[in-house]
Structure formats: structure tokens, C-alpha cells
């Protein structure tokens, strides 16, 4: 059986713990490989490799580091088909979606290619008599990223590309559910010209996570996953003196106004709710309809649209989405569907028990649709992370916006309307981090920044864009003077800029 180990110091290193996790094929339910789960000693070895590579890499000028990023981008593009098929085989996404996963990661790599400009500091000539002041951004040191199963290409690139371009060395701890793509990305980074030890991959579970959070030589940690674990990562990492950004769960709302283009809204939301089997932190699992007429029309159309979706294996070119990642996750989603029924929501489409001929043991969940969901329901309050759309009905924009504002999660939301003033006021006032106006999945482009509010994010700096540069660097300010002759008693006076 195929085994996935670690990538440390520029080479594959066999795991020494004797512990392994199973890697499933979600299409068949079969174990296709196993992944080594690291010990603290193996994390120490990765840190040692990163620490050894750090001085020379941090001293490499930004333009040369950017050239490595350009070559990495080229190599990933050249290997797109291989990466997409590998990703789909372990995650379950259809191939087109896997290619999108890789491409969204590449968008951030492309942004990181501009690091010579992005690292430029500020300069003030003549801040005082003969005094100039300037700032510089410098690498933090050895950094780490802990990434989730749902985007095994995109999120590692979001973290590692920016961190490495800024002059840091990096340790990636990907999800043990689908670790092969991150391992391949590390190989391509080495091939692109990054010295051995600049990017290391340590596979593992909580043992590896805790070792990262407590290691004194790791200066910053970025995390994406569930909110409870995000809070744990943030508090533990911060308690150990690290800079931490920890992105958590979501329950994104899509508000459909009476003046919305209903054809477009239904088309957008069916993709946003069910695409990638709903396993996206920026999925749109809640539709809030404003007014009875709007709600009735939306629900009727959504039933037809969801029924028309094809659930298939990852390599089926006609499938809209594939299986979920594991049997445990499938059971969790189906339990939430039952919870919604028990709480009194109206189940219009039931995706439980969905099977495909020849793939009866695959982890498939059909499209599910609820109407008349109430804010007090637990199934509404918690993240389902599956192909389940819940419809909540509201009487006004104010009531609809309050649902998104008051929810425990604040990752993103969207409004569908033709009223520019309503959209503008909604975007300004709603209490979430990312807003779409007639855009169902408002993930910002790479040169802006990604991040939610409330229990969707812990820490005060977002992913990629200018915020990413800030997170992975520290600023140093220099005040300089070149006096002409003896300064005399001025040396005993607090300097001023007057």
C-alpha cells in the first residue's frame, strides 16, 4: 500500500513514530494509502532544517526570491492535471473543482511574485536637522501553517507562498485526510529553486499541532479549520509567544431581496450551496428570503435546480459535485439533516442514503434543502459543512441583515438585489468580514485580503494580500544622522524632530 511520509530538508523522510492514518478514496470508501503521523522529534527535525536554511534565504534579495515564486508558479501550472487528479482522489472533489483549488492557490503565488515591491518600507528625508527616518520589513524566521482537508492546494499556497517570499522558512502541517498534494507542492518548490529546508512538510495529528504551537523556534502560525480548534490554536500559540492567525468556521447567509434577479440568484446559490459538496468555508448554506412572495418563488425554483444536480464520482466530467471526504463526515452531515427535521424545519429534499451504482460504499450525500428554518435551531446555529441549504424567511432587509450580524460566525455573506442604495448600506453595516453584492462566494482576489469576524477568525491579521505581508514580517524603523563634527552636549538631550 502506498505510504505518505514527511518532506524535511529537501527530501522525503520516513516517519519514525510507527503511527499511521488511513487515506481513503471517497468515491469507493476504500483505504488507498496511509500517512505517517509525526512525533515531536520529527517536528524538531523539520524546525532544525528550516532554521539552518533561514539565514541564507532571508539574506537572498527579494527579486531572487520572487524568481523562485515565478518558477514555482510555472511548475504548478505544468503539473496541473497531475495535481488535480491527485487532489480529487483523496478529497473527492470533481476534477474541475480541484483545478480551481490549485488555481486559487496560484493566484496568491502570483501575488507573492511582487514581493520586491510589497516589502518596500517608508522613508522620510529631513525628519529633523540632518536626520532621516526609514523603515524596513524583515522576515520573522521559522514559520508554520496548519491547513484543512477542504482546500489541500489553495490554502497551503496562501500561507507558504507569502511567508517564503518574505524571506521566512516554513513548516506545513496539512490535513492527514489528503496530504499528497501538499507533499507534491513541496517537491515543486524545491525544483523551482528554493533551497532545501525552506519548505518542509510534516504530516500528523494533534501531536504535531501541539508541537508546532509550543516550539520556541517557530515565530508565527497560520491556521484554517473549525472554530473550536482555531480558538485553541490561537490561545495556545499566543500563550507561547507566537504571532497567530486562526481562521475558523462559517455560516454564510445569502439574502434575496424582492427586486433580485431571481434567475441569477437561484443559479448562483445552487452552485454556492452545493458546489464541492458544501465543503467550503465560503459556501452559502443559508438563504434568507425577504417577503413571502420572494420566499415561495425562490424555494420552488431551488427545488427544481437542486433536483437537477448530478452527484458523481470525482472523474465524472458531468458531475456537479462528488463525495464528501470521509465516512465520519458523511455521518455528521446526515445527523444534522435529522436534527433539522427534529427541530421542526421543513425538509423538502433529503440527500441521505444517496448511492451510486458500482460505488455503493462511497461517501456521497445528495442535495438537501430545508424551508422554514428558525434562528433558534441548533442546525442553523452550527456549521454543517455539507450539501445542505437552509432557507430562513424574513419580512424586511433589516430582519435579514440582523440574522447575519447576530450569528456566531462572521466569515461572509451576500445580498442579491438591484437596489444600489440598499446594497451599499447593507455592506457597510452587516457584521461580517467579507460581503458579496450579487456575488454568492465573495472570496477576495489575491491582492486583497481574506478573513472573517467573530468566531470565524482569531487574531487581528488576515490571509494573503497586504495583510499577509504584514503578518509574515516584522517592521524595523531606523533613525539615522551623520553629524558633521562634534555634537557636544546634544548627546545628553532626548532627540526631537523640531
Structure write-up:
There is one protein chain. The longest helix has 20 residues, at 40-59. The protein folds into 2 domains: 2-248 and 456-477, Aldehyde Dehydrogenase, Chain A, domain 1, CATH 3.40.605; 253-437, Aldehyde Dehydrogenase, Chain A, domain 2 (3-Layer(aba) Sandwich). It contains 16 helices and 23 strands. With 498 residues, it is α/β, with parallel strands linked by helices. Helix 3 crosses helix 4 (95-112). Strand 19 (412-416), helix 15 and strand 20 (434-437) form a beta-alpha-beta unit. The termini are far apart. The radius of gyration is 25 Å and the shape is globular.
Summarize it:
The protein is an alpha/beta fold and 498 residues long. It contains 16 helices and 23 strands. It has helices at residues 40-59, 62-78, 80-91, 95-112, 115-118, 154-165, 180-191, 206-214, 227-239, 262-274, 292-307, 327-343, 378-381, 397-406, 420-429, 465-471, and strands spanning 2-4, 6-8, 11-13, 20-25, 30-36, 123-128, 131-139, 142-146, 169-173, 199-201, 218-224, 243-247, 253-256, 286-290, 346-349, 368-371, 388-394, 409-410, 412-416, 434-437, 453-454, 457-458, 473-481.
Amino acid at each position: 500500500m502506498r505510504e505518505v511520509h514527511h518532506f524535511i530538508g529537501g527530501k522525503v523522510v520516513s516517519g519514525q513514530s510507527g503511527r499511521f492514518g488511513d487515506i481513503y478514496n471517497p468515491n469507493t470508501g476504500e483505504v488507498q494509502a496511509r500517512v505517517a503521523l509525526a512525533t515531536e522529534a520529527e517536528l524538531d527535525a523539520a524546525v532544525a532544517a528550516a532554521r539552518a536554511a533561514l539565514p541564507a534565504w532571508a539574506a537572498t534579495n527579494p527579486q531572487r526570491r520572487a524568481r523562485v515564486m515565478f518558477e514555482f508558479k510555472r511548475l504548478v501550472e505544468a503539473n496541473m492535471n497531475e495535481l488535480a487528479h491527485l487532489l480529487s482522489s483523496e478529497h473527492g472533489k470533481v476534477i474541475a473543482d480541484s483545478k480551481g483549488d490549485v488555481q486559487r492557490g496560484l493566484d496568491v503565488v502570483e501575488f507573492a511574485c511582487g514581493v520586491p515591491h510589497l516589502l518596500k518600507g517608508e522613508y522620510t528625508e529631513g525628519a529633523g536637522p540632518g536626520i532621516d527616518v526609514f523603515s524596513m520589513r524583515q522576515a520573522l524566521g521559522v514559520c508554520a501553517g496548519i491547513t484543512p482537508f477542504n482546500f489541500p492546494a489553495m490554502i497551503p499556497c496562501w500561507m507558504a507562498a507569502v511567508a517564503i517570499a518574505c524571506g521566512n522558512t516554513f513548516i506545513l502541517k496539512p490535513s492527514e485526510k489528503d496530504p499528497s498534494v501538499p507533499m507534491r507542492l513541496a517537491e515543486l518548490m524545491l525544483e523551482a529553486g528554493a533551497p532545501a529546508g525552506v519548505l518542509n512538510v510534516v504530516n500528523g495529528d494533534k501531536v504535531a499541532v501541539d508541537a508546532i504551537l509550543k516550539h520556541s523556534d517557530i515565530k508565527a502560525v497560520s491556521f484554517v479549520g473549525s472554530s473550536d480548534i482555531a480558538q485553541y490554536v490561537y490561545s495556545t500559540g499566543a500563550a507561547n509567544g507566537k504571532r497567530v492567525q486562526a481562521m475558523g468556521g462559517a455560516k454564510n447567509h445569502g439574502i434575496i431581496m424582492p427586486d433580485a434577479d431571481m434567475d441569477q440568484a437561484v443559479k448562483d446559490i445552487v452552485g454556492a450551496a452545493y458546489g464541492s459538496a458544501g465543503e467550503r468555508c465560503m459556501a452559502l448554506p443559508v438563504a434568507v428570503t425577504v417577503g413571502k412572495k420572494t420566499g415561495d418563488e425562490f424555494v420552488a425554483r431551488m427545488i427544481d435546480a437542486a433536483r437537477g444536480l448530478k452527484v458523481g464520482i470525482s472523474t465524472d466530467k458531468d458531475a456537479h459535485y462528488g463525495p464528501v471526504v470521509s465516512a465520519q463526515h458523511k455521518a455528521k452531515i446526515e445527523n444534522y439533516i435529522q436534527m433539522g427535521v427534529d427541530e421542526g424545519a421543513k425538509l423538502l429534499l433529503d440527500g441521505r442514503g444517496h448511492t451510486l451504482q458500482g460505488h455503493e460504499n462511497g461517501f456521497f450525500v445528495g442535495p438537501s434543502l430545508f424551508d422554514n428554518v428558525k434562528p433558534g435551531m441548533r442546525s442553523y446555529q452550527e456549521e454543517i459543512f455539507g450539501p445542505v441549504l437552509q432557507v430562513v424567511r424574513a419580512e424586511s432587509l433589516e430582519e435579514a441583515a440582523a440574522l447575519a450580524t447576530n450569528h456566531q460566525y462572521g466569515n461572509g455573506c451576500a445580498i442579491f438585489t438591484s437596489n444600489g442604495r440598499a446594497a451599499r448600506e447593507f455592506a457597510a453595516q452587516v457584521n461580517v468580514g467579507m460581503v458579496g453584492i450579487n456575488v454568492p462566494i465573495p472570496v477576495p482576489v489575491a491582492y486583497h485580503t481574506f478573513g472573517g469576524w467573530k468566531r470565524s477568525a482569531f487574531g487581528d491579521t488576515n490571509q494573503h494580500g497586504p495583510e499577509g505581508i504584514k503578518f509574515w514580517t516584522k517592521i524595523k524603523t531606523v533613525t539615522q544622522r551623520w553629524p558633521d563634527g562634534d555634537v557636544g552636549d546634544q548627546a545628553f538631550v532626548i532627540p526631537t524632530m523640531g
